[in-house]
Amino acid sequence: MNMPAITDSKYLVQAGWDDVPHLDEKTKKELLESTPPHLRDARSKGLPSLGSGAIYPVPEDEILVKPFDIPKYWPKAYGLDVGWNKTAAIWGAWDRDNDVVYLYTEHYRGKAEPSVHAGAIQARGEWIPGVIDPASKGSGQADGSVLLEMYEDLGLDLVKAVNAREAGIWQVYERLSSGRLKVFSTCQNWLAEYRLYRRNEQGKVIKEFDHLMDSTRYLIISGLAYSITKPTGKLGDGIVSMNSGDSGAGY
C-alpha cells in the first residue's frame, strides 16, 4: 500500500496519544508500558507501522545475571519444545517473594532420539515438572510414535502448555521489561535466539531459530502454575539424590 500524495487539497493527519491534550505524562507513561513494543510508535505518535523488528527489545545487560546458588525454597519448572531438527528446554526458578523468574539452565540438541533428550532433562532433576508444546500431541517422530506419550513413558512429568502465542509473548515481554524475568549468562543458546527473535514486515513472528523462545513462552504462560520445590525424604522413598548436580545452577 502506497502513502497517499499530499497536495494543497489533500492532507495527511498523524495523531497518537502524545497529541491528546487531556492525557498527562503519568498516564502516557502507563499507556506506553502497557503497549507491545512493535505498536508503540503507532499508538503514541500515530506513525504507520507494520510491526517489524525485535520482539523483545530489552537490552541484554538488563536481563542477564551471573549464575548463583538458587535457594531451595524457590519452585522450579521447565518449558519444552520438541522436534527432530531441534529439541529445546529451558528451566526456570521462581522467586515468589519478589515475583522474579530466573532462567538458569537449558537443553539444546538436534537429531537425537527422545531417550537422549529425556536423559538430559532428568539429569537436571527428575522431580521438576515440565510444560510441553501442545502440538506434540499427534506430531510424529520415530516411526510415527506420539512424542508426548513417548516422553511420558520415558519418565518425564509433563503437562500440555497453553499455546496462545501473542498472549505468551506479551507475558514474557512484561516480565523482561519490568525486571521480573532474568537469565543466567551461561544460557548462551537462549541468548543467541533472543538476539534473532523478531517479526517480519507484516508483523508476523518469524518461525525459525526460536525453540528456546517458544520454551520460555510455555514456561511463563503455563509452567509457573505447575512449578514445585524439591520433595524431601529419604533415598529409596521416591526421592532422587541430586548430589551429582550442578550446585552453581541450583539443581
Task: Describe this structure as you would to a colleague.
The protein has seven helices and eleven strands. The protein has 251 residues and is α/β, with parallel strands linked by helices. The strands form three sheets. A seven-stranded mixed beta sheet has the order 2-10-5-4-3-6-9. A two-stranded antiparallel ribbon has the order 1-11. The relative contact order is 0.19. Residues 1-7, 47-51, 140-145 and 234-251 have low confidence and may be disordered.
How do the helices and strands line up, and which of them pair or pack?
Layout: H1 25-33, H2 40-45, E1 53-54, E2 64-65, E3 76-81, E4 87-95, E5 100-109, H3 114-122, E6 130-132, E7 140-141, E8 145-146, H4 147-153, E9 158-160, H5 165-178, E10 181-184, H6 188-196, E11 198-199, H7 211-221
Parallel strand pairs: 2-10, 3-6, 5-10, 6-9
Antiparallel strand pairs: 1-11, 3-4, 4-5, 7-8
Helix pairs in contact: 5-7
